[in-house]
Amino acid sequence: MPVTVIPVIISGGSGTRLWPLSTPDQPKQFHALGGEQTLIQQTALRLADAEGLSVAAPILICNYRHLDIARAQMAQIGCAPAAIVLEPFGRNTAAVAMTAALMAQALDPDALIVLMPSDHRVSDPAAFARAVTTAAAARDHIVLLGVKPTAPETGFGYIEVGAPLTGPVRAVARFVEKPDLAAAQAYMASGRYLWNAGVFLFSPKIMLEEMRRLAPQVAEAAEKALSRAQRSGEAIALDAEAFADCPSISLDYAVMEKTDRAAVAPLDAGWADIGSWSALWSEGTPDDLGNVVNGPVELLDATDCLVWSQGKTVGVIGLNDMIVVQTDDAVLVLPRSRAQDVKLLVERMKAKNDGTKGGGVNE
Amino acid sequence: MPVTVIPVIISGGSGTRLWPLSTPDQPKQFHALGGEQTLIQQTALRLADAEGLSVAAPILICNYRHLDIARAQMAQIGCAPAAIVLEPFGRNTAAVAMTAALMAQALDPDALIVLMPSDHRVSDPAAFARAVTTAAAARDHIVLLGVKPTAPETGFGYIEVGAPLTGPVRAVARFVEKPDLAAAQAYMASGRYLWNAGVFLFSPKIMLEEMRRLAPQVAEAAEKALSRAQRSGEAIALDAEAFADCPSISLDYAVMEKTDRAAVAPLDAGWADIGSWSALWSEGTPDDLGNVVNGPVELLDATDCLVWSQGKTVGVIGLNDMIVVQTDDAVLVLPRSRAQDVKLLVERMKAKNDGTKGGGVNE
To answer: Residue A306: its chain B contacts at CB < 8 A?
Structure first.
């Protein structure tokens, strides 16, 4: 009998480094970033054709103000979520995992939860489904999916793999958050480290046990917020007062780094976290001169640029290694090497105008 | 008794190098380019407070499709033109000068015409009026205003000054169109060359004589186009069929290079031809880091840039010597050193889409 999985899709994060496309009203998971479907649509469809798995209707967990856009985007792809859990504000991934475990426990205690960020790309969904099936063999663990590094990325979390558990699933030896370049290079060379893809597979029972044991404040606040939630159709609005008592802590810190049930299964499915404009360039399809373009763009002597238009003509002359972005709200221009500093620019604008003016500055 | 002058304002040229601000529907003379008033408004007001001159109501000569915007912009500054002559299409400045002479001959044959491009800036209008008064002393000549070069510009026309005529007015020894850099440097060093500011002072009688003698086809076609013009209020629409027979030739080529009545008077009035985005940077008021900005702009580590927004937020990180322009129609990004190539970009876009799409590509 195939394993039953419940996809739980986390719509968190503001995607500040993808300003001005990503805004508080429409963060990056609700944008297509070059594909046909938005990232959250791709995520909702990721396991749709999975072989060897029985895939239940997904649960979405998102900010309350994204209910309409989430509903609309799911309807567009013919996806009917089992529930859309609405957070009054973000409390990080530990609260999300606890909420997911409680929901799944009520829906189908024998199912496994696949907890997935909504803003990643996976070019090979069949390989993703195989990785989930592999991970499901270690159902008494909380299994992360880990990606073999292809570059010494300093913006990702790394997992050092430990002892073999079952098949290719291994225990986690340790977690490393955003190493410096030298460390990242050493990790990559060693072959013992994987990128933390932020995807978790676990049974509700194990997560509830571990959360209550290792992060009791999170467990208690999330349980209270869900039990007092307002329900309307598939929408479940967590109780804000109870949720406010929940510590804002990641699942990694709250549980994974403490539990002896942390495991990791390999993922080789064309995974990408499009966290910045330079990542969008790296993951894009370049022309002969290395330019990745979107929308009506006119290039004259441009090389290795990302030129992204949401609709209006963007003319570019004599640029190398640059990023040019045009949206309905704003324009952004910078060298690719400065892509991480978009966050800084947005924070400065927010400090100045408190998000009331201009290009929908992230909150 | 003061000299009477009739300002004739030429609204020609498409300002292609200022795309996307300058478009066929609203070329650069109808834009403010950073000031309070548009360039054509500044031109219409240039002689308004002139001392020692009797200034008649101006005549505008513009393309027929700019009638509404020209009327609106004149009304905005309380200027009532004596006439707005509408060209069905451009036939260069010889046709304009002939038309102006015919109009002035009918209005006031003793007045002198000040023929002025509508897209230049003059920071000191009083000095401009003094230059006109000086030039008026040589009323049996066609007098150009010449600007002492401050840089070896290769995009301007140069005038080599000849024998003294009256006061500082001198005969023209020869004209040089757009010299190469070495020649421009030599001209500047010699002290014998002035930039051709494109401003002409002449009596209708002399212009009619010289045009009929030296460019009879222009004289005949322009005269016919005006005599058959359709008049409606102050608007005078030249007859298209007759005007089509007019050779498209500049006043410099048709008359000035052939006549022995060419003269030049010095102009030292903060004259600037804002022909390109780099000129707008040069003529702008920079911040401490050399950046000239317009509109809602957020700069992070930018130096010596022009960042021009027509309304939406433009964020810039880590740029040097760059131009970034945002209008309602389009976005343009390029190094300042490539400012002349905007024309090339626009021509390429026009070839592709024939001006039917995108940012109002110039025709």
So the answer is: none
B285-295 pLDDT tens trace: 999 999 999 99
Residues of A in contact with B324 (CB under 8 A): 331, 333
Amino acid at A304: D
CB A95 within 8 A of CB A61: no
Q: How confident is the model at residue B226 (pLDDT cuts 50, 70, 90)?
A: very high
- Whether chain B has a CB inside 8 Å of the CB on A178: the answer is no
The single-letter code of the amino acid at A323 is I
- With beta carbons less than 8 A apart as the criterion, state whether A5 and A111 touch: yes
Structural tokens at position B116: 């002025």
The DSSP bridge partners found for residue A121 are A272
Domain ranges of chain B: 3-273, 277-353
Query: What is the predicted ipTM?
Result: 0.81
What are the DSSP calls for A195-213, one per residue?
EEEEEEEE-HHHHHHHHHH
Compute the distance between CA of residue A137 and CA of residue B295 in angstroms, rounded to an integer: 59
Nearest to B315 among A296, A313, A332 (CB): A332
Q: What distance in Å separates the CA atoms of residue A239 and residue A53, rounded to the nearest whole number?
A: 34
Q: If you average pLDDT over every residue of chain B, what do you get?
A: 94
CA distance linking residue A60 with residue B256, whole number of Å? 77
> What pTM did the predictor assign?
0.83
Q: What is the CATH number of domain B3-273?
A: 3.90.550.10
